[in-house]
Amino acid sequence: MSAKTYEVRTYGCQMNVHDSERLSGLLEDAGYVRAPEGTAEGDADVVVFNTCAVRENADNKLYGNLGRLAPMKTRRPGMQIAVGGCLAQKDRDTIVKRAPWVDVVFGTHNIGKLPVLLERARIQEEAQVEIAESLEAFPSTLPTRRESAYAAWVSISVGCNNTCTFCIVPALRGKEKDRRTGDILAEIEALVAEGVSEITLLGQNVNAYGSDIGDREAFSKLLRACGRIEGLERVRFTSPHPRDFTDDVIAAMAETPNVMHQLHMPLQSGSDTVLKAMRRSYRQERFLGIIEKVRAAMPDAAISTDIIVGFPGETEEDFEQTMHVVREARFANAFTFQYSKRPGTPAATMEGQIPKEVVQARYERLVALQEEISWDENKKQVGRTLEVMVAEGEGRKDDATHRLSGRAPDNRLVHFTKPDEPVRPGDVVTVEITYAAPHHLLAEGPAKGVRRTRAGDAWEKRTAAAAAKPAGVMLGIPAIGAPASSPAPAAAGCGGCGD
């Protein structure tokens, strides 16, 4: 009997990407197989939407996609559609009312129930809607199908205690809950044993870690503990909050060799007035003070940020304050957003909503300034010799240009000439930068060195296993229900809102 195939479509932040790895792991543990690349829309037996409630028009995008699948499902009665994530947590019964052909709706707190809900919907022949109000168990207990053999997400907390007026995520993900440090480190050690050489610590407000136990230095202690894990080459984290970013974290970053000198520090606005309206608990001086301390400790640090343009009540003077911070901070890159109303947030009903054309004009000025700064900062990399960890799928033109792509220690994207010897994703290639563009670096000369790694071995082993696997033949009946617990991670925060 051929196994049922599945497809997971992910929208939103890193937390959702990580949750989708768990959804895939759950389905494969229950006997499903991933639909092959290039499978036509609607041909998978189970289609799962892992949704985001932060992005503009998220609901319109979801219902448009669901609408396209409706006639396909009519032609294929055994097909099932599931909707999870933040939008499912928010809209609940509305989804089935607007799209009655949906089989399962599940929330952010109970992703582990997906296989059971699919089976129940099949047997009872009616939609199953199950939204837990609080976290039932850390998703770290769930199986995972990681997208990468050499890099992995590791969640250290779920939820958020902030009340930013533009963000609905805390209402959907709940209050912050921290994982035990021992569980986090045990998961990282297990990942490294599998060949992973780079991990990214995830949290809605990652540097607030330890608030559960009242230890303000818990996050810096965690970073230092990561430095003692043999075989772990690169440690990153996202996203911190300026309010909780303390000097001990800067010291840990500077003094722990495998913690990368890369920092994503969400600004949102440079205006103290707007920051107050956003309920962001820092001001311009505090933000720039952090940047100054980071640069003093790590002159080579690449700092990125999130910025919202056109928040309700933002004046031209407020916007100029944002431009001032961008000029002072000299971000390597910035994720810039035009403010859009998000139903359920206080900002959606605030007075002083800015006309679209004004927001657009300000946005274009900000993007132009940041492009100029990004290019200038990248030009400083020309002539430097960098160790690049080879990545999979980072360079769309690599085949045509006979290049490979990867990430420098500071996370800059580097395209480089393919070495004569075989190189695998996860291996490390030493190159000299010869050219800089605003969003990538180029190394056109021959590689200075190639280091084959355990991470590359893991990628090679996984690729060989996938090639050898028979096409979807399943013995016996799929297991249904929550799998047995094993130490691993939780979900994280929404990088899009920057808390």
TrEMBL record:
Question: For the TRAM domain, which residue ranges apply?
Answer: 379-447
Which keywords label this protein? 4Fe-4S, Cytoplasm, Iron, Iron-sulfur, Metal-binding, S-adenosyl-L-methionine, Transferase, tRNA processing
Matches recorded under Gene3D superfamilies: Methylthiotransferase, N-terminal domain, tm_1862 like domain
How would you classify this enzyme at the top EC level? transferase
| SUPFAM superfamilies recorded | Radical SAM enzymes
One GO term of the cellular component aspect?
cytosol
- Its EC number is 2.8.4.3
Cofactors that this protein relies on? [4Fe-4S] cluster
MTTase N-terminal domain residues: 4-123
Query: How and how many cofactors are bound, per the record note?
Result: Binds 2 [4Fe-4S] clusters. One cluster is coordinated with 3 cysteines and an exchangeable S-adenosyl-L-methionine.
| Location within or outside the cell | Cytoplasm
Protein residues bound to [4Fe-4S] cluster 1: C13, C52, C86
Which ranges does the record mark as transmembrane?
none
Q: Which reaction does it catalyse?
A: N(6)-dimethylallyladenosine(37) in tRNA + (sulfur carrier)-SH + AH2 + 2 S-adenosyl-L-methionine = 2-methylsulfanyl-N(6)-dimethylallyladenosine(37) in tRNA + (sulfur carrier)-H + 5'-deoxyadenosine + L-methionine + A + S-adenosyl-L-homocysteine + 2 H(+)
Tell me the first and last residues of the signal peptide: none
Q: Which residues bind [4Fe-4S] cluster 2?
A: C160, C164, C167
Describe the location of the Radical SAM core domain by residue ranges: 146-377
Domain of life assignment: Bacteria
Q: Name one GO molecular function term.
A: 4 iron, 4 sulfur cluster binding
Against HAMAP family, the record matches this protein to: tRNA_metthiotr_MiaB (MF_01864)
What is this protein's function per UniProt? Catalyzes the methylthiolation of N6-(dimethylallyl)adenosine (i(6)A), leading to the formation of 2-methylthio-N6-(dimethylallyl)adenosine (ms(2)i(6)A) at position 37 in tRNAs that read codons beginning with uridine.
Among NCBIfam families, the record links this protein to: miaB-methiolase, MiaB/RimO family radical SAM methylthiotransferase
The subunit structure is:
Monomer.
User: Record's family?
Assistant: Belongs to the methylthiotransferase family. MiaB subfamily.
Q: What is this protein called?
A: tRNA-2-methylthio-N(6)-dimethylallyladenosine synthase
Native source species? Streptomyces telluris
Encoding gene, per UniProt annotation: miaB
